[in-house]
Each structure stands twice: as C-alpha cells, then as structure tokens.
Specification:
Layout lengths: L2 H18 L7 E9 L2 E9 L1 H10 L7 H7 L8 E2 L1 H6 L8 E3 L5 E4 L5 E10 L4 H8 L7 E6 L6 H10 L2 E3 L5 E3 L11 H25 L15
Parallel strand pairs: 6-7, 7-8
Antiparallel strand pairs: 1-2, 2-6, 3-5, 4-5, 8-9
C-alpha cells in the first residue's frame, strides 16, 4: 500500500465524516473517541447500508452480547437451519436478530455486521508514542492500525517498533510518516463482530447527538425523544 494511497484514504474519510454520518448508506465514516479493546481510538469504517436500514426499520441499535454474536456466527444469514437446540437457546431474542419457526425446529439468522472497520488511529501525546504503538498493535488481527503523534520528531526506537508491528505513523498534520500494513490474518469471530457493534453504537450515539443539535424540538411543551439511527 503506497504512502499516497494511505493518506488519501484517511483524508477522504475525515472530510466525508460529517456528511456520511447522517446517511448510513454504505459511505465511509469516522467514529471518534470509541473505546475498543480497552483503547480509545478513532475508527474509520464503512457502514453496511442495507443492515443499518433493516435495523432502523426493526427499531434495533447495536447488539453487544459477545456470547450471542459468537453463537450467531455458527449460522448462515437468511438461510433456515433445522436445529431444535439452537431454537430453544434463542428463546426471547427479537425477530430482528433471529427468527424461530412455529414448529420449534428451525431458525433463521437475520443479524449481520453493521459496518467494517478499515482503520483505527490511536492518538499519542508527546512522550507516549511507544505506548500508543503497543496499543495499536492490539488490532493486528482485525484491521489496519495507525498512531497519530503530537510532535514532529519521533524517537528512532518508536519508529522501529512501529515498523516491526506494522503500525503506521501520522504526523500532527496527518501526513503519513510510516505506512500501515494490512492485518496479517484478518480475524472474524464473535469478538471482532463485537468491535464492529461497539463502533456502530458509538456512531449511532454521535449521529443522534448531531440530529438533536441541528433539529430543534417542536415547541409543544412536551419532552421529545431522539431515536438513534
């Protein structure tokens, strides 16, 4: 991946964030200040527009039960599967997540991942660059990872560690000092799905706040509810 291409992707995501955050149509979005794997990052993601619209219609937001997500990974999407044990396990789950047949034998998974995380950026204060590289390395099996530094001069040891770990480095102006590598083996399991759902939850929250800011409530004298999504 070339330096120019890496920078183009990040700049494009940044400039499109405010526009795409109100659409949810498969566009690139920037999800700021989301905590994933215990690390606060900015995530650059692509919304699954079809799934987002389906969830909106079903009144669903993010699903953050790791055990449930891991179990759903055992099922194909939108294909009925005969499994009485699974049918019993899914008692009480909304039909927007999984549909259970009336005969008590088959289930059909409806839930899909709401987005794909393509990049994460860990911001580093001066003197904390090496720790930020280590934090970014936690995402090695999931996505491209970057560290955004606050000063122009980076210790050589930090640059070497970043190169060894495949972590990209961005200067204070978000110019690429070191390109990020693709994840060696992309992991897709219940935990990686959980990261996507957490990013989606944060995106919905910020989107709801943006709507509340730009759309004043009607002067009815009653409280209004802002619906995420």
């Amino acid at each position: 991946m070339s330096t120019e291409y890496s920078m183009y992707r990040l700049v494009l995501a940044s400039s499109a964030a405010l526009v795409s955050s109100s659409r949810g149509d498969g566009s690139a979005v920037r999800v700021k200040a989301v905590t994933l794997l215990g690390v606060k990052v900015t995530a650059y993601a692509v919304i699954n527009g079809t799934e987002h619209q389906r969830r909106e219609a079903a009144g669903m937001a993010a699903v953050t039960d790791p055990a449930l997500l891991d179990r759903l990974m055992d099922l194909p999407v939108a294909v009925p599967v005969s499994d009485p044990v699974f049918w019993a396990e899914m008692t009480g789950q909304p039909c927007g997540i999984i549909e259970r047949s009336e005969d008590g034998t088959s289930v059909t998974r409806r839930l899909e991942s709401p987005l794909v995380i393509e990049d994460v950026v860990v911001d580093a204060a001066g003197g904390r660059e090496l720790r930020a590289v280590q934090d970014a390395s936690l995402f090695a099996g999931f996505t491209r990872r970057w560290v955004g530094v606050a000063r122009g001069r980076i210790p050589v040891s930090t640059m070497l560690e970043a190169k060894l770990c495949g972590v990209g480095i961005l200067d204070p102006y978000r110019k690429v000092l070191l390109p990020a590598e693709e994840p060696v083996a992309s992991t897709m399991d219940g935990w990686s799905w959980l990261l996507q759902e957490k990013a989606y939850r944060r995106w919905l929250s910020r989107r709801s706040q943006d709507h509340a800011t730009v759309s004043p409530s009607p002067a009815t004298g009653e409280a209004s509810v802002v619906r995420a999504g």
